[in-house]
Amino acid sequence: MKDSVPTLVGDDTKCGFCTKSCPRMIEDYRPIYTEVFGDAERDSALGVFLQAYALRNADEKIRKRSQDGGVVTGLLLHLLDTEKIDGAIVSGIDPENPWHPMPQVATTSKEIIAASKSRYTRSANLVALAEAIKERKLKQLAVVGTPCHIQAVQRMRLAPLKRIDRAVVMTIGLFCSETFRFDDLMQQKIAGELGVPLEKLRKLDIKGKLLVYPRGAKESLKVPLKDLAQWVEPSCHYCTDFASDFADISVGGAGTPSKWSTVLARTERGQNLIEEMIAASKFLREEVSSEGLDMLRRIARPKVARQPP
Ligand SMILES: Cc1cc2nc3c(=O)[nH]c(=O)nc-3n(C[C@H](O)[C@H](O)[C@H](O)COP(=O)(O)OP(=O)(O)OC[C@H]3O[C@@H](n4cnc5c(N)ncnc54)[C@H](O)[C@@H]3O)c2cc1C
Questions:
Q1: Cβ–ligand 1 contact at 292 (below 6 Å)
Q2: Under 8 Å between Cβ of 32 and 155
Q3: What pLDDT does 306 receive?
Q4: Are residues 147 and 169 in the same domain?
Q5: What are 232's strand-pairing partners?
Q6: Does the beta carbon of 261 sit less than 6 angstroms from any atom of ligand 1?
Q7: I need a labelling partner for 137 at 20 to 30 A (CA). Which of 6, 45, 211, 221 fits?
Q8: Residues 268 and 295 reside in one and the same domain
Q9: Per-residue pLDDT, 61
Q10: Overall average pLDDT of the 136-151 stretch
Q11: Which H or E run includes 143?
């Protein structure tokens, strides 16, 4: 990756692993559904899942530092505490460049917590997967990512590269409509037009509109999403996965009240982890209402049904 853009720096026609794992260089995901989930029934908008939960981190300090329910951060902290992982692939923040996402291998609670909240710009998280396995020799990893990251991990797992399959013990996918170009969204719109220097930006959220929370301000500044459409990353127009369909656990904010997360457990290992955390009172649990799930389907459908340009 050069400046967050995949760049061809060499050519090995015998290998082709980059093509085999690229989430955009595949037309038909149906064989992968079958490979991963067998003939399990698939929700046409949200993919295969065993159970839907509304969850919230019981530790209010962590929840407040997080984007929605603090579920992703909670899952990673629990995996680390119980020694089920020795590292997590997350999107951290470039120390030189406020709000600029940076792929990161987090091996401590502090690093996991520091990476919480959402950046709505592209983060090449999987660059850190290579670093974790090849350079840092970590053996048990959780990967957090948007649907494209999780698709790529799944494709890598199914290719005959067992090192990756063995090392990735949990995938946590985020719901995702799209990402935006950093220079346009963060520098031009937020720092420039809205006059919020990025070092003074506390939180960004997308709930029907882009909500911009400067530090110290009680109210958010609101930007209609149609104003941002021109800055969507071009590769997002080819994506038809909203809910990270191939993750062990998928997490998003839509479908549940504010400060909670909608969580889809897709695999047994994902569901066991969630149940373990509920039993240990680390997560508060509510039911996801059928209205909440229907709303989620309505949000997902335009992307899932999209015909790539
Ligand atoms: C680009 C993007 C688009 C999203 N779109 C939607 C949407 O349309 N609808 C919806 O319901 N939810 C969406 N989400 C998910 C939502 O914003 C929260 O991430 C999710 O609800 C988890 O909340 P949490 O409190 O459990 O996460 P936290 O505990 O705060 O943890 C967030 C995790 O996300 C990772 N992360 C942050 N930014 C990125 C990034 N750019 N790329 C990859 N990983 C990242 C961090 O490393 C961290 O581990 C989106 C997230 C992103 C990053």
A1: no
A2: yes
A3: 84
A4: yes
A5: 180
A6: yes
A7: 6
A8: yes
A9: 98
A10: 97
A11: strand 141-145
